[in-house]
Amino acid sequence: MSSGGSSSSGGSGPSASVVIPAHDEGAVIDRCLRVLLEDVRPGEFEVIVVCNGCGDDTAERARRHPGVRVEEIAEPSKQAALQRGDDVASVYPRIYLDADVQMHGRTARALAAELRERGLAGAPAPRFDASAASAAVRSYFGFLSRHPVYGAGYVGSGVFALTRAGRERFGPWPRDLPDDAFVQRLIPPQDRVRSPGTFVISTPRTMRAQLQRSVRIQRLNRRLERVDDASVSGSTTDSTRTFLLRHLRQPRWWPGAALFVLVAVVSRVLARLAERRGQDRWLRDETSRAA
Q1: CA distances (Å), 135 to each of 132, 141, 142, 254, 261, in order?
Q2: For an engineered disulfide with 121, which of 16, 187, 254, 255 has Cβ 3.0 to 4.6 Å away?
Q3: DSSP 3-state assignment of 21?
């Protein structure tokens, strides 16, 4: 066993807590819970959906799933939802799952088992589903998915888990910071594990939607970079330049590489412009949530 301090309720209680923050996720919450609870024995996971500032039927839909606890808070804040989830959850390892991604129960089971043996944080491998997207988006994600940042030790993009010792590395969830990137920078690589299995991320369907998503991520990451906290350090990426140069030797990657660079440059510029203008509009991708 590692020094992670993970705990579960013996062999009879839940093996892990799953906290799902959800803001107006009525279009996808059923899919998220259905996939998670498939082939899972009753009570195997302590599943908590935290509806934050919802104006739709997310809470009602989540309550229809047996064994799911639903919490509701008025504030439309993912970080506040994560904190409420932590306040009511009772089991470690603790899995944090975005409502718009899909992770099978067997993958959650493997993630919890891995963290009971070693590490402070972990996640399965992400898999991008661009089947409903445009050709440009498919090319973009075909290239992006090869980036070394998504290799072993990557936590984020919709799923990650913490042991008790990992969660005790910080206090309340930092407001206005990207939760997954925060954890990735807080927990050193040697204490992050890649568990068996994958989880599915439905990509935006259009390049316009992907650009908006990238602008949001850029703004969140810029906030994280400005945090004056010695405990948050390090880089979340390998050498993008090396990655690009290696793939530019092969013409079949040129279209995806061009889109990758274009989105990176334009989103960075737009993020800076939005900050200078004091714009704080939430650019959430709705195309990946469409039926």
Answers
A1: 9, 10, 10, 14, 17
A2: 187
A3: strand
CA angle 186, 189, 194 (to 5 degrees): 110
Question: Phi, psi (5° rounding) for residue 184?
Answer: -60, -40
Residue pair 140/179 in contact by the 8 Å Cβ criterion: no
For 48-57, what is each residue's pLDDT tens digit? Answer: 999 999 999 9
Structure tokens at 200: 């599915």
Instruction: With a cut of 60, say whether residue 176 has pLDDT above it.
Output: yes
Distance CA 108, CA 113 (A): 9
Of the candidates 286, 178, 204, 199, the residue with the CA atom closest to the CA atom of residue 18? 199
Q: Which of 80-89, 122-131, 155-164, 278-287 has the lowest mean pLDDT?
A: 278-287
Reported in sequence order, the residue ranges of 23-120 that DSSP labels E, i.e. its strands, are 45-52, 68-73, 94-97, 101-102
What burial letters (b/e) apply to 217-231, b meaning 16+ CB within 10 Å? bbbbbebbeeeeeee
Is 148 in contact with 189 (CB distance < 8 Å)?
no
User: Residue 51: helix, strand or coil by DSSP?
Assistant: strand
Where do the domains of the chain lie?
16-289
Calpha distance 215→269 (Å, rounded): 9
Exposed e or buried b per residue across 96-113, where buried means at least 16 C-beta atoms within 10 angstroms of its C-beta: bbbbbbbbbbebbbbbbb
Spatial separation of the C-alpha atoms in residues 27 and 30, rounded to whole Å? 8
Domain 16-289, CATH: 3.90.550.10
- Contact between 51 and 62 under an 8 Å Cβ cutoff? The reply is yes
Query: Helix or strand or coil: residue 102?
Result: strand
Which regions of 74-191 does DSSP assign to beta strands (E)?
94-97, 101-102, 121-129, 159-162
Q: Cα–Cα distances in Å, from 252 out to 96, 142, 143, 263?
A: 36, 11, 10, 19
- Spatial separation of the C-alpha atoms in residues 259 and 141, rounded to whole Å: 9
